[in-house]
Design a protein that fits this description.
Length: about 525
């Protein structure tokens, strides 16, 4: 359930203070305290080197409504960092000769509908399986349904669509892969996934404050509450669990009941113990770790580089192994990592193998351009004796446009947009954010005309993206413009023949015309 976060500020005053400090710990504290006071950091941070914690702190609020502060004991949802634990569990079973990575998944689950997919394909995100879109029809039919792991194979059998690509041909990040792997761990270990994690990972790694969340709502008093802007046309912070619009409810509620892909709750201290257990061989042999930390090669022998976009490239050139992001950087060397993103939450577990350095960080508030990965890079630069570069704060043009649209109408919004889009020093424009805004307007605010204008602008900004035409077609159809919707769906499908959702909608509209 991967989202991108763009640039914020490390203020010039904070940088000048860093130069005057003596130790990395003091410099890190000066930087994170300054940006937290400036409103640009709300979460937890732990920085370590060669098995020693250099800096650890909790800043801002774990819960804004109750004014509970973030501390070193605050538990946060790892989101997709949880996938590293699933990978460890699978590789442990491999070491015990319970499985082979090139075994097909159907060997263990005969009812699985895709016989060519192997365990390695699932671990490396090269299976071709769908992601959360797999559950869209179920959620539309039963809006209060919560998807669980036990239902996934049955849902896949009823999906009635081919894989997005032949296993191993391409790379596509898919949460479904890791939910299936959790089922595999349960079957081979003959115990619930939560029990396995506790017995073979949490306890050996000395993680007493870590657990797999299996119930909703959250009852842990130390759990942080994710916060975000209510919509992309508003600026009021609310807890994610209190928001019931669009993709927020779909991702956090309807699709929030799976495990293996997400939902491990922990602290920064426990994550440091996990880091050390990996270094010290308490969880896996070095051979297994080396295999997990090797970039995956596709069927044609190539490595798929930089799958996560420009912001995460702050950590280096990236690829993906078996449950781990792999980074190579001229200054930092080789590192392995995993990020996690939920609405209102961002996490990262970064381990520099070349320098034996670790950064564990989470933020539980969504900020416009909050530069999550830039903050990690800044911490690493401090740790390596450098002064971090100033990071320029940029405002979201999508949110500015959306607020103007709702408050002052289409003409004022368009003229404001056209003036500000050239001001790249202070504003950034994102295809994804404009897309989210369009859907917020369509489904959340029931402003079909405003949604239409937003998607129209997005096609002009990003004419080479099949997805913007697909979204534009959807809102054209919602506005009763069927002929125009047909043309845009056709254009989207021509650009991406694998757009199965667009094909289904096009067939529906054409059938209505007959």
């Amino acid at each position: 359930m991967k989202k991108l976060f763009i640039i914020t500020i490390i203020i010039a005053g904070a940088i000048s203070q860093l130069i005057a400090q003596n130790t990395p710990s003091q410099k890190l504290d000066s930087m994170y305290t300054a940006i937290s006071k400036n409103g640009d950091f709300n979460g937890g941070i732990l920085v370590a080197e060669k098995g020693k914690i250099i800096y650890q702190n909790g800043l801002g609020y774990a819960n804004f409504a109750t004014q509970i502060p973030n501390t070193n004991h605050s538990r946060f949802n790892l989101a997709s960092i949880s996938k590293t634990f699933t990978s460890v569990a699978v590789l442990q079973l491999k070491e015990k000769r319970k499985l082979k990575l090139d075994d097909t998944f159907i060997k263990y689950f005969p009812e699985f509908p895709f016989p060519a997919i192997t365990i390695r394909h699932l671990l490396s995100h090269t299976s071709g399986l769908p992601d959360l879109e797999l559950y869209e029809a179920i959620v539309k039919a039963s809006p209060d349904s919560v998807i669980g792991n036990a239902a996934i194979i049955s849902i896949l059998k009823n999906w009635n669509q081919p894989l997005y690509f032949q296993p191993g041909e391409k790379w596509k990040y898919t949460n479904t892969n890791y939910a299936l792997l959790a089922l595999l761990v349960e079957k081979l270990s003959k115990m619930p996934f939560a029990t396995y994690l506790k017995k073979y990972i949490f306890e050996p790694a000395n993680m007493p404050d870590t657990y797999l969340r299996m119930s909703r709502p959250e009852k842990d008093p130390d759990a942080v509450v994710n916060h975000r802007m209510v919509t992309w046309y508003d600026s009021q912070f609310k807890s994610v669990d209190s928001i019931r619009v669009g993709g927020i409810r779909y991702c956090n509620y309807n699709c929030g009941g799976t495990y293996g892909d997400s939902n491990i709750m922990t602290t920064t201290a426990d994550m440091f113990n996990y880091d050390q257990a990996l270094y010290n061989g308490k969880l896996l042999s070095q051979n297994s770790l080396d295999e997990a930390f090797t970039p995956t090669r596709l069927n044609n022998g190539s490595i798929y580089y930089d799958p996560f976009g420009p912001e995460m490239s702050q950590l280096g050139r990236s690829s993906y192994g078996l449950g781990w992001e792999i980074y190579e950087d001229a200054e930092l060397g080789k590192a392995v990592s995993h990020g996690g993103h939920l609405f209102g939450l961002a996490t990262c577990f970064y381990r520099n193998l070349s320098k034996n350095q670790t950064v564990i960080i989470y933020e539980n508030i969504e900020l416009e351009g909050h530069a999550f990965y830039y903050k990690i890079r800044a911490a690493l630069e401090i740790l390596n004796g450098k002064t971090p570069k100033k990071i320029h704060y940029k405002k979201s043009l999508a949110r500015t446009y959306g607020a103007t649209l709702m408050q002052k109408g289409i003409d004022k919004a368009v003229t404001t947009f056209n003036i500000l889009k050239t001001d790249t020093t202070h504003y950034y424009v994102s295809e994804h954010e404009m897309n989210w805004l369009g859907y917020d307007l369509l489904f959340g605010a029931n402003q079909k005309q405003y949604s239409l204008e937003t998607f129209k602008i997005n096609t002009l900004l990003f004419p080479n993206s099949f997805n913007v035409y697909d979204s534009y077609a959807e809102t054209l159809y919602a506005n009763g413009k069927r002929e125009e919707a047909i043309l845009m769906y056709q254009k989207s499908i021509a650009m991406n023949p694998d757009n199965e959702g667009g094909k289904a909608m096009l067939s529906k509209i054409l059938a209505e015309k007959q």
